[in-house]
Amino acid sequence: MPDQATRRGLLIVLSSPSGAGKTTISRKLMEADPTITMSVSATTRPPRPNETDDVDYHFVSDDEFEKLVEDGELAEWAYVFDHRYGSPKEPIKTALKAGRDILFDIDWQGTQQLETAFGNDLVSIFILPPSMAELERRLRSRATDSEEVIQGRMRRATGEIVHWNEYDYVLVNDDVETCLAEVEAIIVAERLRKHRRPYVADLARKLVERPND
Ligand code: 5GP
Fold first, then answer.
1. Structural domain tally of the chain?
2. Cα(80) to centroid of ligand 1, in Å?
3. Which of 9, 16, 95, 192 could be bridged to 127 by S-S, CB 3.0 to 4.6 A?
4. Measuring CA to CA, which residue among 39, 50, 45 is closest to residue 76?
5. How confident is the model at residue 142 (pLDDT cuts 50, 70, 90)?
């Protein structure tokens, strides 16, 4: 019989327009709960100065990305801002089998594909900025992107936000600590859902069938 702690792993997707705070929230979430694994995506985008290969992304060439697609190594992939991004399949399988949760920072296109592939094992969370003015302010305060990139991201933000209703949960990142606490609450509740906990089904059956044990 499975013990209390045994459960299926969870695929947690965090999506938001760039600048709504999901990277900060992902980082804080992993610090608070080291049992969560972050999915490291492959991308054809060049690294930013503060990014490390195989930590922030697997930075690959167009040909390398094409090979990953052809070999069926990606669970999902999409074009975002003119570059290709995709989630490697193998770490997902390993985490799920080990009952570990895996966190994805991916866009709505990837979320739809993971939903189709993993259905019940997926929990999707969309993070909204409190306003477009605040989103722009946050994008500017990062100071890593050019004016052209910032304007491009603002245009893309609307295209991302229109997909809010495809997600299981929609949060507003007005205050990062509050939003983080909400994400943590969702994860606690989702981990307790009965289909992820073979232990409770076995226990309930035993309590009914063999009440004197
Ligand atoms: P950035 O270039 O700012 O790191 O990421 C740009 C966008 O690509 C973000 O909205 C991020 O969520 C999305 N993204 C990152 N990795 C993946 C991935 O593996 N698949 C998909 N579909 N989107 C991704």
1. 1
2. 7
3. 16
4. 39
5. confident
Neighbour order of strands in the sheet with 122-128:
37-38, 102-105, 11-15, 122-128, 169-172
Q: Is residue 201 a part of any domain in this protein? A: yes
Beta bridge partners of 170: 126
Asked whether the predicted pLDDT for residue 15 surpasses 60, the reply is yes
Pocket test for ligand 1, best of 68, 81, 106, 112 (most atoms within 8 A of CB): 106
Q: Which residue has the tokens 């972050």?
A: 38
Are 135 and 157 a contacting pair, CB within 8 Å? Answer: yes
* Three-state secondary structure call for residue 141: helix
User: Which residue range forms the structural domain that includes residue 161?
Assistant: 4-39+100-209
Whose CA is closest to atom 1 on ligand 1?
18
User: E strands of the chain, at which residues?
Assistant: 11-15, 37-38, 42-43, 58-59, 74-80, 83-88, 102-105, 122-128, 169-172
161 vs 15: CA distance, rounded Å: 9
CA distance 41 to 117: 17
CATH number at residue 199: 3.40.50.300
With a cut of 70, say whether residue 2 has pLDDT above it: no
pLDDT, tens only, 122-139: 999 999 999 999 999 998
The answer to whether residue 132 sits within a structural domain is: yes
